[in-house]
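Final report, Chapter 2: Outcomes

The project's central promise was a pipeline that accepts a single protein chain and returns its three-dimensional structure in a standardized token representation, suitable for archiving and comparison. That pipeline is now operational. To close this chapter, we reproduce one record exactly as it appears in the project archive, with the input sequence first and the structure output second.
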Amino acid sequence: MTRRNVGVLLAGLVLCAADLSGQAATAGAVPDLTVLVAREGSELVGVVDRFNTDLASIRRRYDATSSPDQRRRMREFYSGWSGELRRIEFDRLSQEGKADYVLLANYLRHQLDLLGRQDTQRTETAALLPFADRLLALQDARRNLTTPDARAAAATLAEIARQIDTLRARFETPTSRGDTSAAAPTRARVPAPAVSKTVANRAAENIDQISRVMQNWYEYYDGYDPLFSWWVKDPYKRLDESLKRYARTLRERVLGFKPQPPTGPTGPSGGRTANATSANDGPIVGDPIGAQGLREDLAHEMIPYTPQELIAIAEREYAFSLSEMKKAAREMGFGDDWKSAVEKVKNSYVEPGQQPDLIRDLAREAEAFFDRHDWVTIPPLAREDWRMEMMSPERQRVAPFFLGGESIIVSYPTADMTAEEKMMSLRGNNPHFSRAVVFHELNPGHHLQGFMSARYNPHRRLFNTPFWGEGQALYWEMFLWDHGFQQKPEDRVGALFWRMHRSARIMFSLRFHLGQLTPEQAIQFLVDTVAFERANAEGEVRRSFSGQYSPLYQIAYMIGGLQLRALHAELVDSGKMTERQFHDAVLQGGPMPIAMVRARLAVISLTRDGPQPWRFAESLPPPVPFGPR
């Protein structure tokens, strides 16, 4: 493909360099509306928008997560859309239309896979939650506008509360040798269900979720229906107490959480103990998805590699980073003792109160570096609209380093932290570590991604994937390394720390999901291989396995970044696109698996099932060692 042909292909998709060059001197300038009017797009924008709107309606309507009605309706919804999508004449679509077709079909397949995975997980927790469907069905009936039978509902709640108390008692030992309560012989006679910590943790989280659903159900009727309140008030209170005590017992007796003092107006039996604070202080359990789950998720991301192959890629990347780390350590006078070099860099932290100024200056430094080249469009408004906030001490337990996107969230010690916590935060957020990743969070990283995806192909935000988001931000880290952004050895140590970390994430997260590594071993792995502060390593592992992130999230940084490096070599190093054309096209095309970015930009042939498997690692350019530029 010639550069001229690529320019024709991207005319309606990529904002030309000239569009914003005249605005650079005027912050907040209005964009060239003629370009926006002329911009062409996919024929399936309306289809994806309609799916998004219908999906939001379905999720609002069926709001009792994992209830019988919700499970049935979501499966019908995804299956129905899959069937209807096949009626579209695929071969008559443009490349952009075919891309949207493939992305939507891929999304629907994966959602059905996830429903199947949830069915398996529900079967595993059934012995601990035999009451779940009966309670969640009450919320389903409310959403169906069924007139409640208050007396029957009260009887149901009372019966289930007794069932929950019986289950809980099986996990508890008698309170004293002279315990003569009715529950004591039951505890001695009937063993507790034999489940793993993973299943018990999942069940405890499900109980919390059920408790919230039941609160919504109860408060809808309470006071508005006098007969309902007359019958249900006391049974609901007892049920709520039973749910919370049961969740607390599972966490303390099975998972090993430390007993917590009661909270809330219900006294010792009703206070929630496994709230955010205790969860962050408790054991890390996680929920590994196994080999089958990894196969499904990798297929969804269009990555034709096994977990073992991805670990081997990570090990090669780690070896390069380690070699470069030792080179920087020698320049700092530590020989091959790279951990001593990291230790010196950690102790270069700024004083409390000065971190926001440091982050501001590093962000501006990165933007100025990009201004000296013609690599990517950063619109004036994207430089103007990002904000800075401080991270709470509680959140720092699971996010020990700053975060970014629409705002940059600064992690640094607060006055009420312990002395140990303060030093961990100071050392982990030193200037050299921060210099290597501020642009990862802001421009041209996450902030610019969000800015562009809100303005170009916004319908594709449905297909958001960390391989596009985190992978692109990590790609910029490697790109700036290649172009000499880190010259001082201390800055290179900071950059390599994160690069080693991203390789280590692949190794420990995949091995965890394969059942080959425990969370405790993952913490030690980070301490040994990346020289993490132990508290920061614990926070990183807790964040990885807390359930807030998808199972492949932690591998997406390095793998997505490497995919983009391979695509850059294919399109830019070959002369088919300029740097700016390539980077703008990636941003403005919208989030999607990187294999689909390649299909769009290189005009790869697509079928209804997507592009042919792309073994990107086989065409990766070698990593760039530090040396004269």
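Archive annotation: The radius of gyration is 27 Å.
This record, like all others produced under the grant, will remain available to the consortium after the project formally closes.
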